[in-house]
User: Which sequence fits this backbone?
């Protein structure tokens, strides 16, 4: 695997993993007041398009990172609606 | 411009723009308790690496989106530390 692809995987791992402490925080606090609903909705749509872009660019790091991130953002959206 | 690049730009625009209502919310509420500090730090590092990946992949959508997102996440990080 070349340096470019490895960098992409590390970048994808970081931006994806970053949502885990955010999901955990929302889950533990049962509070999402400071999270912006508009942010979550726009971000979720964007992440779906990034996944499509990654498929077209034949970039496994982009596809993998965004597919998992989408699920984590979906969890935040559900909690944002539930704990509002 | 081809469909792939246009999709990338729309994806980048959405995930980047999504941080604007989040920055606005933190600014207006002067509250960032529900935002995870670990999330912001990991995300900022990841975004920097995505920018590098975009440069190497010669992908203007990835570079543009991530460079701007980095500045918005930086603003959130400053407010997270300040309003904590």
Assistant:
């Amino acid at each position: 695997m070349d340096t470019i692809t490895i960098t992409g995987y590390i970048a994808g791992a970081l931006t994806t993993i970053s949502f885990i402490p955010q999901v955990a925080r929302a889950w533990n606090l049962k509070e999402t007041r400071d999270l912006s609903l508009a942010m979550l909705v726009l971000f979720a749509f964007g992440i779906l398009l990034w996944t499509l872009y990654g498929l077209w660019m034949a970039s496994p790091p982009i596809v993998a990172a965004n597919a998992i991130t989408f699920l984590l953002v979906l969890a935040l959206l559900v909690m944002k609606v539930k704990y509002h």
The interface with chain A takes residues 3-4, 7-8, 10-19, 21-22, 24-26, 29, 31-36, 38-43, 45-50, 52-53, 56-57, 59, 61 of chain B (CB under 8 Å). Helices of chain B lie at 3-17, 19-29, 37-56, 60-82.
